[in-house]
Amino acid sequence: MRDTASSQLPFIDLQAQRSRISDQIDAAIRRVLDHGAFIMGPEIIEVERQLAERTGAEHCLTCASGTDALILPLMAANIGPGDAVLVPSFTFTSSAEVVALRGATPVFVDVDPQTFNMDVDSLKAGLIAAEQAGLTAKAIMTVDLFGQPVDFDPIRDIADQHGLWILDDAAQAFGATYKGAPLGTIGRVTGTSFYPAKPLACYGDGGAVFTDDTELYERMKCVRVHGNGGGSAEAKYLGLTARFDSIQAAVLIEKLKIFDDECDRRNAVAQRYTKGLSDIVQTPRLIEGATSIWAQYTLVSEQRDVIVKTLAAENIPTALFYPRPLHAQAPYQGYPVSGNGLPVTEQLAAQVVSLPMHPYLEADAQTHIISAVRAALAS
Ligand SMILES: *Cc1c(COP(=O)(O)O)cnc(C)c1O
Q1: Looking at domain 1-379, which of 3.40.470.10, 3.40.190.10, 3.40.50.720, 3.40.640.10 is its CATH number?
Q2: DSSP H/E element including 167
Q3: How far does the chain reach from its first CA to its final CA, in angstroms?
Q4: What's the whole-model pTM score?
């Protein structure tokens, strides 16, 4: 049921989606309750098949969260102490957390002021910082922030030159494309999340890893269940309990049926925002040849705090992704930073603000949001 009594606009309206497919979802969950295979049931195999097919990746391995989708490849590839992984600082904590959890070293890299994604010059400086710290750079973790793919080509050139591999954190970007290719096939490994607020989401925690590397896939499959893959009495590797649940897979299968339509709706919402706001504030810029899935619609403004306050007074929620860069947060303060610091990251942390964004945001509500932002900037 939608809460019509509240005048607060939702930031993400999961109930609007639910009312569209509630019968199908209820029936899908019920089927799992009836067959009782809660762990690794038929829905897991089916959703992995569908997700692999959709991306064109050779293999899809579902797992318990987006964070697991990033640590599984690091574990399978034996990234650990003495190794460096280049990571943007302007991202969600998981991107660096998994590197640190492995005992490896995240080296923080700056981002581009327009796309919010990894900056190539800063990446090069980060490789020098890693070397100066006596570390062996092993991988680059690209993050497709807010749903827009990283510009992979120049990053892949650097990766190839230095013998690094790309682990793409597409937690916010499942469904986006780069030069015609869906994310999931571009790095050596791609991880995504099905956390409820992500563009493709289940009703709890979940994630998936995509790769064309069969050997790595087999190892990750083993690591996902205690390093024995669930099938053997003996562990081959250190592992986790990192399986996706059958019930969540059943939910995801139903949501996949409307996902393409939701992508179109997200694009329409983003276009309306851009049309209504790009003359007065920095609106998101897509790189040539990329499509975004619009996990967030994020403005950059020196008057960010005025926008937040004005919208709050109109019962319009906003969100700050991210007000504090990772390299400034307690667990990450000791790690190397590229170049002479991360000026773009620091500036964005002070100036970004995200507007309500979901496939069911109606034109009327958006007109109201756009007027409120315009009023804030005129004041
Ligand atoms: C959400 C997110 C993750 C982690 O996903 P969980 O499913 O919450 O573990 C990782 N990286 C980024 C960029 C994210 O936004």
Answers
A1: 3.40.640.10
A2: strand 165-169
A3: 37
A4: 0.97
How many angstroms is it from 97 CA to the middle of ligand 1? Answer: 10
What are 46-89's pLDDT values in tens digits? 999 999 999 999 999 999 999 999 999 999 999 999 999 999 99
User: CA nearest 358: which of 143, 203, 198, 207?
Assistant: 198
CA of 298 to the centre of ligand 1 (A): 17
Residue 194 makes CB contacts below 8 A (sequence gap 6+) with: 66, 200, 201, 202, 205, 206, 207, 208, 248, 252
Radius of gyration of the chain (CA): 21
Q: How many Å lie between the centroid of ligand 1 and the Cα of residue 148?
A: 15
Task: Please count the helices (runs of H) and the strands (runs of E) in the chain.
Answer: 12, 12
The pLDDT mean for the chain works out to 96
Most informative mutation of 12, 65, 94 for ligand 1 (most atoms within 8 A of CB): 94
Query: pLDDT digits over 181-212, tens only?
Result: 999 999 899 999 999 999 999 999 999 999 99
**Pocket residues: Cβ below 6 A from ligand 1:** 65-67, 91-92, 94-95, 143, 169, 171-172, 193, 195, 205, 207
- DSSP code of 129? H
Would you give the DSSP letter of residue 365?
H
Q: To which residue do tokens 């007074």 refer? A: 313
Exposed (0-12), middle (13-18) or buried (19+): which is 182, by Cβ within 10 Å? buried
**Cα 288 to middle of ligand 1, angstroms:** 25
Task: Tokens for 349, please give them.
Answer: 């942390």
Domain extents in the chain: 1-379
Ligand 1: which of 62, 91, 195 to mutate, judged by most atoms within 8 Å of the beta carbon? Answer: 195
Q: Is 334 exposed, middle or buried (0-12, 13-18, 19+ CB in 10 A)?
A: exposed
